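Example for tutorial group B:
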């Protein structure tokens, strides 16, 4: 059941926040945005410290989540896509996963993998001395030039519709092996579906008895297994 307010907000979104898919059915509730199935897979792979994804039809929502939603993709991207360098082509719905991942990672994490702080590369706050520079969508030719056979297969996999989601509560581990004689491990968990989409817990530094207590959500097909790494 969709909250009436969520349904009204969804009508104002003319596309996914990160590509041109006109019918996004997923959300990143940490920012209050709507995203498509393929982009949601990238968001999940970045970890729950970056994005928390929910289906707008399959998952439970609270009124607080709904109230946190942005009014439209246009309003949201006035901030998050204020200045997009030309080397970062915005994906279209048919764009391969490699280009999609590069764009979304820079947009929400930054140009480097910051461990404790997110610095969105295109955000208005990071480009206060620059003029607005709207993104350019990736063309079919650009997409072809930036994909190899393996990437193309991954992209085709990403277009498979899932039958549901699995909710995973990662609690803790104990007595993990040491990284070496002098230091403990830096443990984390990855859960991956058969289409290559994954969710990852936070990394806990130098701890052989980690406690995550994290809630993760992964799209699944009831006939396909998930793997744990």
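The residue assignment follows.
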């Amino acid at each position: 059941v969709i909250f009436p307010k969520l349904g009204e907000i969804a009508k104002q979104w003319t596309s996914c926040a990160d590509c041109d898919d006109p019918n996004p059915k997923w959300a990143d509730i940490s920012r209050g945005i709507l995203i498509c199935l393929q982009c949601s897979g990238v968001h999940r792979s970045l970890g729950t410290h970056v994005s928390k994804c929910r289906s707008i039809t399959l998952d439970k929502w609270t009124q607080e989540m709904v109230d946190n939603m942005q009014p439209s993709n246009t309003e949201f991207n006035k901030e998050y896509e204020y200045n997009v360098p030309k080397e970062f082509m915005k994906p279209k719905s048919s764009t391969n996963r490699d280009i999609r991942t590069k764009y979304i990672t820079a947009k929400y994490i930054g140009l480097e993998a910051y461990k404790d702080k997110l610095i969105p590369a295109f955000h208005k706050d990071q480009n206060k001395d620059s003029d607005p520079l709207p993104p350019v969508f990736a063309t079919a030719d650009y997409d072809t030039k930036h994909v190899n056979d393996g990437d193309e297969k991954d992209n085709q996999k990403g277009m498979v519709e899932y039958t549901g989601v699995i909710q995973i509560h990662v609690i803790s581990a104990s007595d993990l092996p040491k990284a070496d004689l002098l230091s403990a491990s830096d443990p984390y968990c990855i859960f991956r579906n058969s289409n290559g989409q994954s969710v990852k817990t936070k990394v806990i530094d130098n701890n052989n008895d980690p406690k995550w207590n994290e809630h993760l959500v992964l799209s699944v097909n009831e006939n396909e297994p998930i793997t744990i790494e």
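The chain is about 25% helix and 15% strand. Compare this with the pattern of hydrophobic and polar residues in the output above.
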